[in-house]
Amino acid sequence: MTIEAQAGVITYAREDYAEIIDELRPLLPIHWAEISQRKDIPLDPDFDFYERANRAGVLWAYSARVGPARELAGYCIMTYSARHAHYDHAWAKDDTLWIHPDHRNLGFGNGLFDFFEADLRAMGPVVIQIETRHGHPALEFLLKSRGYGPTGMLYGKRFA
């Protein structure tokens, strides 16, 4: 799926995690620095888990790329599986979702959502769940504008 944007052509795709991870790695610290609420806990992704989930067929990597060089401008990593209490129905849950600040408010977020929602709808999930961080109003605004609503509250407590 491609759409025209001010910065050129934006391409949305579902890509193989193994093929996108090397491009994604340098963006993760930027993403983490923006949204982390516990900056004293270092970013330490379990890349082995992601590789296993990808090989098991339950991990999807969606990308938003811009321009002729197809620069990675945003991504969404989703897991797709049945829920323990709703085994006959598949659910998609985001693991991480981010649009680079240089590409926000240009339609990238909506375009990425349009793409992965259509892709997931074709596979038949009952629910797509997107987690947002407290104090990240841009994603919350995007979610509400697309018809997403709260499904619960997530609280955290850190033990030293």
Features:
32% helix; 6 strands; single chain; 5 helices; Aminopeptidase; alpha+beta; disordered N terminus
Structure characterization notes:
With 160 residues, the protein is α+β, with helices and mostly antiparallel strands. The chain has a single domain, classed as Aminopeptidase, CATH 3.40.630. Helix content is 32%, strand content 31%. The protein has 5 helices and 6 strands; from the N terminus they run ββαααβββαβα. It has a 6-stranded mixed sheet with strand order 1-2-3-4-5-6. A hairpin with a 4-residue loop joins β3 and β4. The longest helix is centred in the C-terminal third of the chain and has 16 residues. The radius of gyration is 16 Å and the shape is globular.
Topology:
Elements: E1 2-5, E2 8-15, H1 17-24, H2 28-35, H3 47-56, E3 59-66, E4 71-83, E5 86-99, H4 108-123, E6 127-129, H5 137-145
Parallel strand pairs: 5-6
Antiparallel strand pairs: 1-2, 2-3, 3-4, 4-5
